[in-house]
Design goal:
The chain has about 425 residues and is α/β, with parallel strands linked by helices. It is about 50% helix and about 10% strand.
Length: about 425
């Protein structure tokens, strides 16, 4: 067990102290106990390091809103223990951490296993909406529905105690940390970078996984140069819990070739040999340096990123798809200046900007835009209760009819966005 700071993670270690280290990372909503049924076998040959995500399993609630931040906290924890090189296995969000490790710190990983993972977890809209649901209803709806996505129906029916354990894990998670993890997954996209993963990789997936299933696993295998696929029959998202023997056997075989020497020595890039002097045959003219652009950078790309984060991919994609020669210039205008200039400024946070936007839209009677920005306000962290207070305030200063129309439009959006998934 461990004590943590805002820069480290809660962890547990099992196995011989002098054995090579194998790190096991958990899925969102679970704790290190999801790996309990692998420990007896793995700890015979490995010093097994398991960690909890922030706010999970009783860990301190220090939210992390980016996968890279979770990676940095994991490495800070390992650094404190003097662990420089290790094997790594990550399930779901911990698989994203594994990919990030392999991309940014390849010298730290000897071998990699990605369990129920994906280079892109669903869509940003899906995870931001999940954050809205948790902020509004707490984790109870997520906890009740977790077994449906984590286990096959047959396993859930035959193992009610494990199902109850899974529900309790989610219920005891800190909501703020869960929402932050959803934001991290919303922003994670390694599809274009998979070719840079240079460590031997096992991609393990349950055949019945409907969350990150065989299709996502094959995308990983196709993108990573040294990767192989292992399909576990009769398993869903939490394959290590549902089919522990099969998963353990696959991990043992994958990491068996990683020696103690490989784990303790960080390879140093070879120094190029110095060649004998060479007499030039002809002088090569220096390449012409293209002129550097002057002035301010174009705010279009950051504007598009912020616009998608606030309004959602579905809304932006629809607006762009409906644009034609007549309206394309307007779409570029609002992306570049409303989102790339004003919303990108540091002077106000996004919650405050949403408050201002809602008030201004009520005052202007822009009911359709109000619906879009109500959805954005929920994603920017405002609760339905806070939105109600904002609209109540507008009734005094913008007029009761305008506020009445605003309440009607906002209520429809809030009902849709905060309703737990069936």
């Amino acid at each position: 067990m461990s004590e943590t700071t805002t820069k480290t993670l809660q962890y547990r270690m099992d196995g011989p102290e002098d054995a090579p280290v194998l790190v096991l990372g958990p899925s969102l909503g679970t704790t290190w106990h999801m790996w309990d049924r692998q420990i007896a076998e793995l700890s015979r040959e490995w010093r097994v390091f398991r960690y909890d995500l922030p706010g999970h399993g009783g860990a301190p609630a220090h939210p992390a809103t980016a996968v890279g931040e979770l990676t940095d906290r994991l490495l800070a924890t390992l650094d404190e223990l003097g662990i420089q090189r290790f094997g790594y296995t990550g399930c779901s969000i911990a698989g994203a951490i594994g990919i990030d490790l392999a991309l940014r710190h390849p010298h730290r990983i000897a071998s990699l296993a990605l369990v129920s993972a994906s280079p892109r977890f669903g869509t940003a809209d899906e995870f931001r909406r999940r954050g809205v649901v948790v902020r509004t209803n707490g984790l109870e709806p997520i906890a009740r529905s977790a077994p449906e996505s984590w286990f096959t129906q047959g396993f859930a029916a035959a193992q009610p105690a494990i199902v109850d354990w899974a529900v309790q894990m989610v219920r005891t998670t800190d909501p703020g940390c869960y929402i932050a993890a959803c934001e991290a997954l919303a922003a994670f996209d390694a599809r274009e970078d998979l070719g840079r993963v240079g460590v031997p990789t096992l991609v393990l997936v349950g055949s019945e996984d409907q969350t990150t299933g065989p299709a996502e696993a094959r995308t990983l295998v196709a993108g990573i140069t040294d990767a192989r696929l292992a399909l576990v029959p009769g398993a869903s998202h939490l394959a290590p819990v549902e089919q522990p023997a099969a998963v353990t056997d696959l991990l043992v075989r994958h990491f068996a070739g990683v020696s103690q020497d490989t784990l303790t020595a960080i390879p140093v890039p070879p120094v190029p040999a110095v060649s004998a002097p060479v007499t030039p045959v002809a002088e090569i003219a220096p390449a012409e340096v293209p002129p550097q652009p002057s002035g301010r950078p174009d705010p279009y790309e950051p504007g598009m990123r912020i616009r998608r984060e606030v309004l959602g991919d579905a809304h932006v994609d629809r607006a762009l798809a409906e644009a034609d020669a007549f309206t394309t210039g307007f779409q570029e205008l609002i992306t570049r200046y409303a989102w790339g200039e004003v919303w990108a400024r540091d002077g106000l946070d996004r919650r405050t900007r949403s408050v201002i936007a809602l008030t201004a839209l009520v005052a202007g009677g822009h009911r359709e835009e109000l619906a879009f920005h109500t959805r954005a306000a929920l994603r920017n962290g405002l609760t339905p209760e806070e939105i109600s207070e904002i609209l109540l305030q507008t009734a005094v200063y913008c007029g009761v009819p305008a506020a009445s129309a605003a309440f009607e439009a906002a209520r429809a959006v809030i009902r849709e966005e905060t309703a737990p998934s069936p």
